[in-house]
C-alpha cells in the first residue's frame, strides 16, 4: 500500500468521492495540465511483464488537442500521461500517483458544424474533438530496447547491480533496498528481450520487476507478506471498508504433482531426478491424475542434484497453489499489486494478495483479483 494510506482509510468505509487528475508530459516537461477526461480505466496485472495499462477518452472543446505533430500532448511519439487519484473528504485531500504511461496510439474524432452566412455562403466551424488513447507503463520503454547484439552480464557479483545497469538511462530507478542480493550464476543466459532478461534476473533474488507508482523500476517480492495492508468486510460495519462483491473460482491450470529435473554431467552425459507427491487430494495416481512438469538447468551435474532440485521445485509449486478470487472494492488510489487483503466473509476471514486491479479513472468502484491459498477456500460458502 502506498505511503499515506492511513490518511484515507476511514474515508474508504464511508461515501468519499473519487477524483482523478491526468496531466500530459513531453520530454520531461509538463505540457497540458488537468486534461478533460471523459472516460477511462487503469488495469494492473502482476502476471504481465508490462504490468499496467491505461485507456482514456479525452475531450477538447476547442480542438487544440488534436494530435497534428510529434510533440503534441496526445500524440504517440514520446508523450506520457501522469495519473493521480484522491478521495474527496471533509479533511485535507491526499493525492496518490497512479503511474506514468506512455501513449502507444491515438484516434481523434473531430466534430464540425456548417454555419450559413448572411451572404449565402457557409463556413465550417470545429465544435471540438475527442481523442482516444491506449497507453502502457514505462516498462514498455525497456521492452522496446531490445539487445541488438549477443549480450552477457558485465559482472557476476550482483543481480541487483546488473538490473540497474540494464535499465539505467531508459527509465528511472527505485533504490531497490531491502532485497537480499545474490551473484549471477555463470550459466545464466540473456534473452534478446531486455524485459525478459530483467524479469529472469529479478527471479534469482525472489522478486518481480515492475514500475512503481512514481514511474520508476523497482523490485517486489514474488511471495507476498502475511500482515494485511487493508481489511474489508461483507456488509458495512462502519469501521472497515465494505467488500462490495466476491465470488469463487478454480482452475487446474498450473497444478502439478510431480517434477522431473534434468541436467548434464561434466563429461556431457545426461543427469535426471524426480519428485512425486504421494499424499493429499492432488497425489500422483489419485483422482487428480498424473500431471508432471519438467525443469532443466545446466547446473544439475549429478542425479543427486537433480533429485534435490526436483523436490525443491515440487515444494515451491505446492506453496504457490492459489486461487484468484474476483472481488469488488471501494475505489482506493493507494492500492498496489501485492498488497495483502484480509476479507471478512459471513463464515470466515480469508487473506490474499492483489494479483490484478481494475480501476476506473472516472467515479466508480474498483475490481481486483485476490490470490488466495487454495486450502483456504475448501468448502467456502457463497455470500448471500
Shape estimate: globular
Give the termini distance in whole angstroms: 29 Å
Count of extended strands: 19
Q: Treating each run of at least 4 consecutive H or I residues as one helix, how many helices?
A: 5
Mean pLDDT figure? 88
Helix/strand/pairing class, anyone? mainly beta
Strand content: 35-45%
Largest sheet, in brief, is: 14 strands, mixed
How helical, in percent, are the residues?
10-25%
What are the segments in which pLDDT stays under 50 over at least 5 consecutive residues? 379-384
Q: Nearest-angstrom radius of gyration?
A: 25 Å
Order of helices and strands: HEEEEEEEHHHEEEEEEEEHEEEE
What can you see in these coordinates?
The chain is mainly β and 384 residues long. Helices cover 13% and strands 40% of the residues. A hairpin with a 2-residue loop joins strand 1 and strand 2. It starts with 5 loop residues before the first helix and ends in an 11-residue tail after the last strand.
Short characterization:
The protein has 384 residues and is mainly β.
Task: Provide the fold topology.
Blueprint: H1 6-12, E1 17-26, E2 29-32, E3 37-45, E4 52-60, E5 79-88, E6 95-116, E7 122-137, H2 139-144, H3 159-167, H4 194-204, E8 207-211, E9 217-221, E10 230-234, E11 241-243, E12 245-246, E13 258-264, E14 270-276, E15 292-296, H5 303-319, E16 322-329, E17 340-344, E18 349-360, E19 366-373
Parallel strand pairs: 10-11, 10-17, 13-15
Antiparallel strand pairs: 1-2, 1-5, 3-4, 3-18, 4-7, 5-6, 6-7, 8-9, 12-16, 13-14, 16-19, 17-18, 18-19
Keywords summarizing the entry:
disordered C terminus; three-stranded mixed beta sheet; mainly beta; 384 residues; 14-stranded mixed beta sheet; globular
Amino acid at each position: 500500500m502506498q505511503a499515506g494510506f492511513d490518511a484515507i482509510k476511514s474515508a474508504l468505509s464511508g461515501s468519499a468521492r473519487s477524483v482523478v487528475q491526468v496531466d500530459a508530459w513531453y520530454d520531461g516537461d509538463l505540457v497540458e495540465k488537468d486534461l478533460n477526461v471523459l472516460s477511462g480505466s487503469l488495469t494492473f496485472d502482476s502476471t504481465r511483464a508490462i504490468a499496467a495499462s491505461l485507456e482514456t477518452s479525452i475531450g477538447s472543446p476547442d480542438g487544440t488537442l488534436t494530435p497534428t505533430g510529434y510533440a503534441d500532448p496526445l500524440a504517440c511519439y514520446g508523450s506520457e500521461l501522469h495519473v493521480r487519484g484522491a478521495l474527496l473528504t471533509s479533511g485535507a485531500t491526499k493525492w496518490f500517483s497512479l503511474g506514468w504511461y506512455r501513449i502507444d496510439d491515438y484516434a481523434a474524432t473531430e466534430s464540425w458544424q456548417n454555419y450559413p452566412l448572411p451572404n449565402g455562403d457557409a463556413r465550417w466551424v470545429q465544435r471540438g474533438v475527442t481523442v482516444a488513447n491506449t497507453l502502457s507503463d514505462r516498462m514498455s520503454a525497456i521492452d522496446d530496447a531490445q539487445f541488438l547484439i549477443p549480450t552477457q552480464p558485465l559482472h557476476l557479483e550482483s543481480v541487483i547491480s546488473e538490473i540497474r545497469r540494464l535499465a539505467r538511462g531508459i527509465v528511472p530507478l527505485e533504490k531497490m533496498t531491502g532485497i537480499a542480493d545474490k551473484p549471477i550464476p555463470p550459466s545464466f543466459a540473456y534473452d534478446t528481450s531486455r524485459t525478459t532478461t530483467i524479469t529472469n534476473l529479478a527471479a534469482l533474488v525472489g522478486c518481480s520487476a515492475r514500475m512503481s507508482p512514481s514511474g520508476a523500476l523497482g523490485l517486489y517480492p514474488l511471495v507476498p507478506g502475511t500482515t494485511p495492508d487493508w481489511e474489508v468486510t461483507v456488509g458495512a460495519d462502519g469501521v472497515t471498508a465494505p467488500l462490495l462483491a466476491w465470488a469463487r473460482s478454480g482452475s487446474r491450470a498450473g497444478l502439478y504433482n510431480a517434477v522431473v529435473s534434468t541436467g548434464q554431467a561434466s563429461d556431457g552425459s545426461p543427469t535426471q531426478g524426480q519428485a512425486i507427491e504421494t499424499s493429499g487430494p492432488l497425489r500422483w495416481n489419485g483422482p487428480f491424475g498424473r500431471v508432471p512438469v519438467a525443469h532443466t538447468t545446466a547446473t544439475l551435474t549429478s542425479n543427486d542434484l537433480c533429485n534435490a532440485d526436483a523436490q525443491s521445485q515440487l515444494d515451491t509449486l505446492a506453496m504457490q497453489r492459489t486461487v484468484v478470487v474476483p472481488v469488488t472494492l471501494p475505489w482506493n488510489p493507494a492500492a498496489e499489486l501485492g498488497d495483502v487483503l484480509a476479507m471478512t466473509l459471513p463464515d470466515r476471514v480469508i487473506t490474499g494478495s492483489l494479483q490484478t486491479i481494475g480501476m476506473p479513472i472516472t467515479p466508480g468502484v474498483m475490481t481486483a483479483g485476490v490470490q488466495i491459498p487454495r486450502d483456504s477456500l475448501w468448502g467456502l460458502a457463497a455470500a448471500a
